[in-house]
Amino acid sequence: MSRWTALLLDHVSLCDISSTFFLCFLIIAQLVSLQSTTAFHYAFPVHSLEEAKKFYGNVLGCKEGRSSEKWQDYSLNGHQIVCHWVGDNYRCVDYYNPVDGDEVPVPHAGLALTVEQFHKLAERVRKAGVRFIIEPHLRFKDAPGEQWTMFFKDPSGNNLEFKAMTKMENLFAKYNVVD
Question: How many distinct structural domains can be found in the chain?
């Protein structure tokens, strides 16, 4: 068994808890993107396909793929994400967890980008007028987990985190973080 498969299996229990589906997505996305060229598929609820199209297509710049009256898919850096309409009243329920001085919304999903991609995306999101939950900043400074991070919501309230490790090889570095 590869170390990536073992790491995924260590996190499978997280996928069993419905409120952590975005965390599961992030773990799978990171594992798949580092392990191979195989793309992951992730589906999530939205309250409006039209609003999702504006956000994922125009704001984030994802290329739209197949669609129906109830769902639409996009390429997020070569990975397939699918917005499923689940009703006009859907909004993601937030929980929070303190991480390095920030109240991090959970569940959340996103990608680990390069530092250059991170700053370009931060500027694109800012220009689109999207409100940051956590402004782009450097966290875990001088630690193995040092990274740029930012959080914002899609129109359905789904939390998104995009990050960039200052040393990408430390994405899965094992160490104890002291709060």
Answer: 1
